[in-house]
Structures are given as structure tokens and as C-alpha cells.
Amino acid sequence: MAKVSPIQFFRQVKQEVKKVTWPTKKEVMQSSIMVIILVVIAATFFFFVDQILGWIVKLVLDIGV
Fold first, then answer.
1. Are 23 and 15 in contact (CB under 8 A)?
2. Any idea what DSSP says for residue 14?
3. 18, 38, 34: which is closest to 26 by C-alpha?
4. What gap in Å lies between CA 11 and CA 4, rounded to an integer?
5. What are the tens digits of pLDDT across the range 7-57?
6. How many Å apart are CA 63 and CA 65, to the nearest integer?
7. Of the candidates 23, 43, 24, which has an alpha carbon nearest to the alpha carbon of residue 35?
């Protein structure tokens, strides 16, 4: 691996940052809303799966008593 001076490193970083395409405010808002919706859907799904599995376990354990 080639050694690079700190000054040269920061110049290279600056050049790479200029190449970055930053998302627009609209894109950020759309992505954020999609993430929030998917988190709510996933949380709801796992809540109901947990309730059903808990009910099944309780049913099985109550039969054995």
C-alpha cells in the first residue's frame, strides 16, 4: 500500500466529495416516509405473529396441566 501524505490525502478526499451526487430534499422525504411506513408494517406483523405464537404456547402448556 502506497504511503500518502496527510495533505495529499485531504486533497483526494475533497476531489471524491465533489463527485458525490447528493439526494434532493424531495428524495430524502420520500425515502424517509417509505422507511417509516415499512417499519410500521413490520412492527404490526411481528406484533401479531408474537400474539399468535404466545397463544399457541399457552394453549399447549395449559393442556399439559
1. no
2. H
3. 34
4. 11
5. 999 999 999 999 999 999 999 999 999 999 999 999 999 999 999 999 999
6. 6
7. 43
